[in-house]
Design a protein that fits this description.
The protein is α+β, with helices and mostly antiparallel strands. The strands form two sheets. The chain has an eight-stranded mixed beta sheet with strand order 1-9-8-4-5-6-2-3. A two-stranded antiparallel ribbon has the order 7-10. The longest helix is centred in the N-terminal third of the chain and has 21 residues. The radius of gyration is 17 Å and the shape is globular.
């Protein structure tokens, strides 16, 4: 009986932990700034990107097939929208003990291989992922900055588009459409979708 009780308590704790990790920012929520280490060794914060009108925050990693499938699309998003004030901010929150390919050293290697034009930050303590409620790689949070108040508001959460396997076959470009709406001063039509990808590897 005692063993059964201990097992039930452990399962309950696991459910609570998973639920806590899934809580986070929703469209319309104001986010708080963070500071993480970039692959060049320097700490990067959102407020440090003073010319930005917003941010395409992408939780991603090195090893996940879904993340790899989207790498070129993430690069293109940055090249297209960074000049418009929406740079990509890529974040790896995976525990390297659970997935060695996602170590900080391997982040540098992958960034060099793919010639990432954006910052690639290491969320070593996983605090940023938990605060955002990121659960997949990739998982996008499109944030708009109010240039008068500097408040940072989430405008879209979810997938980059609707076809992870084939970029040319995607019919819905969620992130691109959202930025187009924001630049036009309009409300984002689709504000949330389901992120498709590998689960973030949490520390035990």
């Amino acid at each position: 009986m005692k063993k059964v009780l201990v097992t039930v308590i452990a399962l309950c704790a696991l459910v609570v932990n998973v639920f806590a990790q899934q809580e986070g920012y929703k469209p319309g929520a104001e986010i708080s700034d963070f500071k993480l280490r970039n692959i060049d060794g320097k700490n990067v914060s959102l407020s440090g990107m003073q010319d930005a009108k917003g941010y395409i925050i992408v939780f991603t990693c090195n090893h996940c097939p879904y993340a790899k499938a989207y790498e070129d699309r993430i690069i293109e998003l940055h090249k297209k929208y960074a000049p418009e004030g929406y740079p990509v901010v890529a974040i790896n929150s995976n525990d390297p003990k659970a997935e060695p390919q996602d170590s900080y050293a391997n982040m540098k290697v992958r960034a060099e291989q793919k010639k990432f034009p954006f910052v690639y930050l290491f969320d070593e303590n996983q605090e940023v992922a938990k605060k955002f409620g990121a659960v997949r790689t990739p998982h996008v949070f499109l944030v708009q900055k109010n240039l008068n108040t500097n408040k940072m508001i989430v405008r879209y959460v979810g997938a980059i588009d609707d076809n992870w396997e084939d970029a040319s076959a995607a019919k819905q470009q969620y992130v691109a459409a959202a930025i187009t709406s924001l630049n036009a001063g309009a409300e984002v039509a689709v504000q949330e979708t389901k992120a498709i990808g590998c689960t973030i590897k949490w520390k035990k």
